[in-house]
Amino acid sequence: MLQTNKLLNLAAIVCFLALSLSSLALAQPKSIAKKAEFVVTSGNQSSVISVWLVDDTLAFSPQGTQQIALWHLWKTDHPSFYQVYPEVGYRIEFDRLTSQETLKMLDELKLLINGHDFVDQMDIDGKQFELSSLESGQSIETAVAKWRSYQTFDYADIGDNEADPVLGKLIQQGFVRTL
Question: Which pTM value belongs to this model?
């Protein structure tokens, strides 16, 4: 009888632990990690843009460029704007005033997102956006995390770093200004 009670108590403890751990796993927020490609058509011309959505980070890149426009805390009133250069592992943070120039672009990108998903089609300022591909998963999250870990330069301090040949080249490229 004593042996049976010990087994029942042990079984109860194991069940309790299993339920507790599964509750914790379910309570953890799932990361949103998606990359969408949109065909953007305006008049007779079409192009492709890539858009990344990972939790509090939203980024986009036009076809044919390695430059990536990235907003951290994109849902807030004052998101941080970065120009990311993956080929050299740098990113430039723009001050709030310069970031204001990108708010129209950010507002347009926000229209392409419905909750945690991308819309299939959208017309924005005479441009038609049509979802052409969608990826999700850890590789998307890893890529964005890597961009966020790049060496960061403040745009206002770039003049102090002109001796860096890579940074000098990046300064001349400018940043992504429009969808």
Answer: 0.76
The token pair that represents 29 in the structure block? 């927020």
For residues 56 and 16, state if they share a domain.
no
Find out whether 123 and 108 touch, Cβ atoms under 8 Å: no
Question: Do residues 58 and 106 touch, judged by C-beta distance below 8 A?
Answer: yes
Structure tokens at 172: 């001349």
Write out the E strands in the chain. 33-42, 45-54, 57-62, 68-72, 80-85, 90-94, 113-114, 117-118, 121-124, 127-136, 151-154
Neighbours of 163 (CB within 10 A): 7
Q: Which residues contact 131 (CB under 8 A, 6 or more apart)?
A: 36, 37, 38, 118, 119, 120, 121
Distance CA 165, CA 118 (A): 38
Of 158 and 87, the structure prediction assigns the larger pLDDT to: 87
Same domain, 24 and 43: no
Site of tokens 């990361």: 31
Task: Please report, for residues 27, 119, 123, 129, 150, the alpha-carbon distance to residue 114 in angstroms, rounded to integers and kept in the order given.
Answer: 23, 6, 14, 14, 29
In this predicted structure, the answer to whether residue 14 has a pLDDT above a threshold of 70 is no
CA distance 69 to 62: 9
Q: Is the domain of 38 the same as that of 54?
A: yes
Q: How many independent structural domains does the chain possess? A: 2
Q: Helix or strand or coil: residue 21?
A: helix
- 68 and 37 in a single domain? The answer is yes
